[in-house]
Amino acid sequence: MEDRNTAMIVLLLLCVTAEMQVDGLSLDVCASCHPKATCDDKSDGSGKVCNCKYGFVGNGRTYCQDKDECQIGASKICGLHTDCHNTQGSYFCTCRSGFTPSNNMDVFTPNDGTHCQDIDECTVTGVCGEGGQCRNLEGSFDCSCILGYEVQNGAEPFHPHRDKASCKVVDCGRPEAAEDTVLLSVSGTTYGSAAMFVCEEGFVWRRGNNRSVCEADGLWRGGNMSCEEVNCGPPPAAPHSLRLWDQSSRPGSRAIYQCNSGYHNVGKGNVSKCNAAGEWERPPLLCKDIDECTVTGLCGEGGQCRNLEGSFDCRCILGYEVQNGAEPFHPHRDTASCKVVDCGRPEAAEDTVLLSVSGTTYGSVAMFVCEEGFVWRRGNNRSVCEADGLWRGGNMSCEEVNCGTPPSRPSLSQAVGPELQAGLQGDLSV
């Protein structure tokens, strides 16, 4: 029995010595570390291990490659309104146009609390030019014209650095004298200028105002004086119509009326006569608005017509968006039209792949599944193309399949028993 125990002890000592020799070879593991790795002590104190340096990923020995921190998205790693720039072993952040870092540095990393804040461009005097009024926006600004100025080479609001538009003072041009009147004086032609009128020779001022002012819409307004001969005078105006007249106010003279564009005559005629009593007959025409929206397809595919007084305009229905212009638009005057909303090809979230998609336009549906090696844990795997041109609804989250920690082997004390544990530990420490 004693010989058998002695043989088992010798066998165990040989096994321990073999393990020490193998472990002795592991002392050279630091020489095999990759240049981008460090040689560190194992957490359990059993030896050394090669770990890739910060900013690199790999096995620490055969390869350590740069970790692209920016791939998770600039807003996640750098914050809102930023761009992320990957470097070898690290990264840095910059603010997008219209924003400035809170630490006033061109580049930064967000670990010190730095964030991008809006620049108020409107604090710069004259940023919108003469007659321009600045409005600060999140990350930008735009301009509009103050009273007495109008936009040129574009539309409001506009951006002076991006658009050709600017503000110019309203110019009404030289005022035109009304029928049977002449211009007496004018202080100018721009906004706020005033013009004075008098009746032509042989006419007398009967009613109205002889002073006209250049208004913000570029028109002379307020001057409505009326001069008359000792006869019928000028024929009366009719709403929404053009008057044709040979300037004669003698009895028997005729005035012809034509409805303006967008109106048609539903009255009993279009001629007014100067009678013997020196008065014009009431114009018999009645100009009524034409409802252009009764014409099918007037606004094109996806367009919805809205009738206006003497005209009409168009807007896009749900699922369509305006192109080459803005709403509302006029298909005969503008280049704008409606096109169906297109969300483009849907992008798969992290660890997912696109299973199917019915299309890319409004109402289309895309289905996603997890990549191989991942399982669906939460969220919705169905995304829909919405009216704003974005895919919405798909928020599925996939997690990598993980079997957990492998089972451990028996400890040395369990293998040899408590009698030999102290002696073996002494030999191992040597």
TrEMBL record:
Q: Does the keyword Signal apply?
A: yes
**Which terms are listed as keywords in the entry?**
Disulfide bond, EGF-like domain, Glycoprotein, Repeat, Signal, Sushi
Q: List the disulfide bonds.
A: C33-C50
Q: Cross-referenced Pfam families, in alphabetical order?
A: EGF_CA, Sushi
The Sushi domain is annotated at 170-229, 230-289, 341-400
Instruction: Report the residue ranges that make up the EGF-like domain in this protein.
Output: 26-65, 66-105, 118-155, 289-326
Gene3D superfamilies listed in its UniProt record: Complement Module, domain 1, Laminin
Per the UniProt entry, the signal peptide is 1-24
| InterPro entries, per database record | EGF, EGF-like_Ca-bd_dom, EGF-type_Asp/Asn_hydroxyl_site, EGF_Ca-bd_CS, NOTCH1_EGF-like, R-tyr_protein_phosphatases, Sushi/SCR/CCP_sf, Sushi_SCR_CCP_dom
- The identity of this protein, by name, is Uncharacterized protein
- What is the native source organism of this protein? Pagothenia borchgrevinki (Bald rockcod)
